[in-house]
Specification:
alpha/beta; Rossmann fold; 2 domains; 10 helices; 12 strands; elongated
C-alpha cells in the first residue's frame, strides 16, 4: 500500500516554528508532527518512533526536519539524530535551524550569478561571519573555490571562524576586523563579492565605503529590517545595478531561499538516506537552475 508522507519537525525551541511548519505543508508533507524543546538527551525515542513504525522499504515516506532559533543547539541535535540510525533503519533529514542553511545557499547562488557562474579564484568577503548564516556562506564560498575573507568587529572572533572553516575544508581563509570605517574599507579593497550577514536592523557597510571599492562586482545584504545591512541598496534588489556592482537585498535572496527550502522538503521523501546540511542544500539549490 502507498504510505502517506510524514514529516517530523524537531525544534530546539519550546514552541516549534510556525514558519517551518507552513513551508512543510506547502511543500507537500501530508502529515506533520511537531515537537518543541527537543535536545540530544531526549531525541532518541522520537527518532525510534520514526524508524520502527514502518518497515525499511517504507521509510522513505518518513523524514525529519531539524529547526529552532539556536543553530548550535540544532547542530548538536543533528548529530544525535544521525547517530541513532543503524543499518537500514534511517530516514532522510533536513537541518535548517533559523533558516541558516537555505539562506546561506541562496546568498551564495546570488554570488555565483553575479560572478558569471563561477567563483573559482574570486575574492569574496563575508561581514558578520561569526553568525550562523555568515559562517555557512563563507564555508560554501570556500567550497566553490573563492578566496574568502571573514570579518567581525573583533579580530579574535573572525580568526576563530577562519580556523573552523580551514578545519572543515582544508583551505585558508583570511580573518579581518571591521571595527572602524577605515579598517572596513581597507579590508574590503580588492574584494569582488561582499556578503553582509549581520543582525536585523544593523548597518554593516556604509555606502561611502562600498561605493569607493574599485573591484566590487557583487553586493549581497541578508538583512531586511531597516536600517539595512548595506546602505544604499534596497531589500527587494535582485541583481540590480548599484554603481559598479550588482546588488541583492534580503527579499531578493529570500525568494530563492524559499524555493530551496520547499524543494529540500520534497527531496526528503525521494529516499530514506539523505542528510541535508549546508553543502547538500547548496547543491540542491544549484540543481534548480
Amino acid at each position: 500500500m502507498d504510505r502517506r508522507s510524514v514529516l517530523i519537525q524537531l525544534d530546539t525551541d519550546p514552541q516549534p516554528s510556525v514558519f517551518d511548519a507552513v513551508v512543510a505543508v506547502d511543500a507537500g508533507a501530508e502529515h506533520l508532527f511537531r515537537h518543541g524543546g527537543v535536545t540530544p538527551a531526549n531525541v532518541r525515542d522520537l527518532v525510534y518512533g520514526a524508524l520502527f513504525t514502518r518497515g525499511p522499504a517504507d521509510l522513505s515516506s518518513t523524514a525529519i526536519f531539524i529547526g529552532g532559533s539556536n543553530v548550535a543547539a540544532g547542530e548538536a541535535l543533528l548529530e544525535a539524530v544521525t547517530k541513532t540510525f543503524f543499518g537500514p533503519f534511517r530516514v532522510s533529514v533536513l537541518f535548517d535551524a533559523n533558516g541558516a542553511n537555505t539562506t546561506a545557499a541562496a546568498a551564495v547562488l546570488a554570488a555565483l550569478q553575479g560572478s558569471g557562474g563561477s567563483l573559482q579564484g574570486v575574492p569574496a568577503a563575508v561581514l558578520a561571519a561569526t553568525g550562523p548564516v555568515g559562517h555557512r556562506a563563507a564555508r560554501l564560498l570556500v567550497r566553490l573555490g573563492a578566496k574568502v575573507a571573514v570579518g567581525s568587529r573583533r579580530l579574535d572572533r573572525a580568526t576563530e571562524v577562519a580556523e573552523a572553516i580551514h578545519r572543515a575544508t582544508g583551505r585558508e581563509v583570511t580573518p579581518f576586523a571591521a571595527d572602524t570605517p577605515d579598517a572596513l574599507a581597507s579590508s574590503l579593497r580588492g574584494q569582488a563579492v561582499v556578503i553582509a550577514a549581520g543582525a536585523a536592523g544593523v548597518t554593516l557597510l556604509p555606502a561611502s565605503v562600498w561605493q569607493d571599492l574599485p573591484d566590487l562586482k557583487v553586493l549581497i545584504d541578508l538583512n531586511a529590517v531597516p536600517p539595512l545591512g548595506v546602505e544604499g541598496i534596497e531589500a527587494s534588489d535582485k541583481g540590480a545595478e548599484r554603481g559598479r556592482a550588482r546588488a541583492w537585498g534580503a527579499l531578493g535572496v529570500g525568494g530563492t531561499k524559499m524555493k530551496i527550502h520547499r524543494r529540500a522538503i520534497q527531496e526528503l521523501f525521494a529516499s530514506n538516506d539523505k542528510v541535508f546540511d549546508a553543502e547538500q542544500v547548496l547543491e540542491l539549490g544549484r540543481s534548480l537552475g
